[in-house]
Fold this protein.
Amino acid sequence: MTRVVHLDRKDMGNALDVLCDAFHDYPVMKYALDASSPDYVDKLRVVFEATCESSLTRDVPSTLADLKGGTRDHPLLHHQRNVR
């Protein structure tokens, strides 16, 4: 059963890690943020941080689909960051 988990400010760091890893090789991000730049990863994180911060400030829910029906300790929130 799929369950939706609402994320809050304390989850933001882990959520940012997951988003940055997920979109690191996405062609639009690579183009828009200049993937050849030495600070590409920092720029990517700033984009998602601004999006998350905007959602939290406006009280727009951020969610995670919990595919295993587990608890807030879903593995995605404790994602092992890829080192590039």
The chain is about 45% helix and 10% strand. Helices lie at 12-23, 27-32, 40-57.
